[in-house]
Amino acid sequence: MLVRHLQEIHEVSERRACRALRVPRSSHRYPPRRDPAVALRGRLRELALARPRYGYRRLWILLRREGWRVNHKRVLRLCREEGLTVRIRRRRKLALLPPLATRPNEHWSIDFLADQLATWREEYNRTRPHSSLGDWAPTTFAARWLVAAGLSDVREGVAQSE
Questions:
Q1: Residue 135 pairs with which residues in a beta bridge?
Q2: What is the secondary structure of 45-88 as a DSSP string?
Q3: What's the total number of domains in the chain?
Q4: Whole domain around residue 55: which residue ranges?
Q5: What is the rounded average pLDDT for all residues in the chain?
Q6: Would 96 be classed as within a structural domain?
Q7: pLDDT at 129
Q8: pLDDT digits (tens, 9 = 90+) for 74-114
């Protein structure tokens, strides 16, 4: 194509145009051997539009069932050329983040991989498989600590600590 363009603009022979572009004349004159596969491309596009979630392998199986003698690698190449790739679905976000704290000491957290309380270690590891207790309000935190320590009331905890 460039050789023909150069020939028309500068009115030179094919030989000189090929030499200027450093293209072998045999390559320039070589006829394309690839069949455009217009019918196959059309049928592939029809199948892909009818079944948008099918990938090239599934389309290849459908083509073979219809009697097309075609290689799966060729179907892959044609799908890429035609832009018939399956669109990847975006995953939904599963976990919601806890509400942000609006004032100091609104949420407390403990990470048992870094810190350990002597009275909680055994019970905690038996009952919870993950490493973090998460964000709790201070009242929830204190209530759970008292239950874990075997105390049912705050007054009992104060009395024992004195």
A1: 109
A2: HHHHHH-TT--HHHHHHHHHHTT----HHHHHHHHHHHT-PPPP
A3: 3
A4: 38-82
A5: 78
A6: no
A7: 46
A8: 999 999 999 988 877 787 777 777 777 788 877 766 655 54
